UniProtKB/TrEMBL annotation:
UniProt xrefs under SMART domains: AAA (SM00382)
UniProt cross-references to Pfam families, sorted A to Z: ABC_tran (PF00005), TOBE_2 (PF08402)
Keyword ATP-binding: yes
GO cellular component: ATP-binding cassette (ABC) transporter complex
Name this polypeptide is given: Iron(III) transport system ATP-binding protein
Lineage: Bacteria, Bacillati, Actinomycetota, Actinomycetes, Micromonosporales
Annotated InterPro entries: AAA+_ATPase, ABC_SmlMolc_Importer, ABC_transporter-like_ATP-bd, ABC_transporter-like_CS, Mo/tungstate-bd_C_term_dom, NA-bd_OB-fold, P-loop_NTPase, Transp-assoc_OB_typ2
Sorted UniProt keywords: ATP-binding, Nucleotide-binding, Transport
GO MF entries: ABC-type transporter activity; ATP binding; ATP hydrolysis activity
Domain called ABC transporter: residue spans: 4-237
Length: 357
């Protein structure tokens, strides 16, 4: 295991014009960490991972493994294990032959190879499957073979690019737990790419949220969820209401804003919020931090229900407050609540948080 550092890394593709696929990215990943690149399609996740693997070289910037500068080193000289979305297995070869691939390239001897293949298949809970053909295995099993093939070379970093996207929902949830277990047991630094925020939160020590080639925020799942840096992060991680509210007074880590009913409330803000009285603040509040109450309750916002959706665990509602739709996820909703009802909304003011545009 090893720490991985990206310093001001950018990648421009010749044919893609002036826009950078990856734009001035700084990331420090600790040895043994499970680190995820998360963002919508096209934001630069795969390009970033391929630069760590050595399949692409950065246009500018540096990549280090520990103190070694690997920026322009070819993939086979980096000791990275890579797992791709489509697994990239050889379908007519056996499981053992597929897993052996990286060992052959490294000219590992026959006896040592056999031992390491058994070990890798054991790690992914496929002991005894060495002689099966790939096309006789389920999608989930193929995914584990791909993992074993990456692990068998005892990589310093394990790189995974959307490895679960070909699996159905239930298997995806089971397999994400498995990947995390395997990574912990192997003690390898892992860099994981996904566009699925639930997957990222469930698996990662830390997450970098990317948008348009740039890293918008790096943090632990809880931090990114509760203290999103920007409106994009707030909306991309889970769901969120981002309200435009007038700033009444602004202090170091608190901003007092006006609410649609004319009342005021203090909201926590990052130290460098840069807001002043008279500005408009963007305030994020999660649907689960709004509760439904009577429209006459003191301090409640009032609005009209425009959507109601019962999901079992919670009821999702949209309530129009002063012309703006507000999403609410409520565990307890009075029976008979329907579109058109006038309701009160109780804000959990401790959970409101100022974000950047
Ligand atoms: P993600 O993995 O987040 O979906 P990618 O890293 O694949 O995003 O792509 C980021 C951007 O770079 C996209 O606009 C994509 O079209 C572009 N891109 C990726 N690979 C190449 C390439 N080989 N040549 C030209 N443009 C590319
Ligand atoms: Mg990709």
């Amino acid at each position: 295991m090893i720490d991985v550092t990206l310093e001001s890394v950018s990648k421009r593709f010749a044919r893609a014009g002036d826009t950078a696929a990856v734009d001035d990215v700084d990331i420090s990943i600790a040895a043994g960490e499970f680190f995820t690149l998360l963002g919508p399609s096209g934001c630069g996740k795969t390009t970033t991972l391929r630069m760590v693997a050595g399949f692409y070289f950065p246009t500018s910037g540096r990549i280090r493994f520990g103190t070694e500068d690997v920026t322009h080193r070819p993939p086979n000289k980096r000791d990275t294990g890579m797992v791709f979305q489509n697994y990239a297995l050889f379908p007519h070869m056996s499981v053992a032959q597929n897993v052996a691939y990286g060992l052959k390239i490294r000219k590992v001897g026959r006896a040592e190879s056999a031992r390491r293949i058994d070990e890798a298949l054991g790690q992914v809970h496929l002991a005894g499957y060495g002689d099966r053909r790939i096309d006789q295995l389920s999608g989930g099993q193929q995914q584990r073979v791909a993992l074993a093939r990456a692990l068998v070379i005892r990589p310093r970093t394990l790189l995974l690019d959307e490895p679960l996207s070909n699996l159905d929902a239930k298997l995806r949830e089971e397999t994400r737990v498995e990947i995390r277990r395997i990574q912990q047991e192997a003690g390898t630094t892992a860099i994981y790419v996904t566009h699925d925020q639930a997957e990222a939160m469930a698996m990662s020590d830390r997450i970098a949220v990317m948008e348009s080639g740039r890293v918008r925020q790096i943090g632990a799942p809880q931090e990114i969820y509760h203290r999103p840096a920007t409106a994009f992060v707030a909306r991309f991680i889970g769901r969120s209401n981002v309200l435009d509210l007038p700033v009444v007074t602004a202090a170091a880590e608190t901003v007092t804003v006006g609410l649609p009913d004319g009342s005021e409330t203090a909201v926590t803000a990052p130290v460098d919020h840069g807001l002043r009285a008279g500005d408009t603040a963007l305030v994020s509040v999660r649907p689960e931090h709004l509760g439904l109450t009577s429209p006459t309750e003191a301090g409640a916002l009032t609005g009209r229900v425009t959507e109601v959706e019962f999901t079992g665990m919670a009821t999702n509602l949209v309530v129009e407050v002063a012309g703006e739709p507000v999403q609410v996820a409520a565990i307890d909703v009075p029976a008979g609540t329907a579109v058109g009802d006038q309701v009160g909304l109780r804000l959990n003011r401790q959970r409101m948080w100022v974000v950047q545009p």
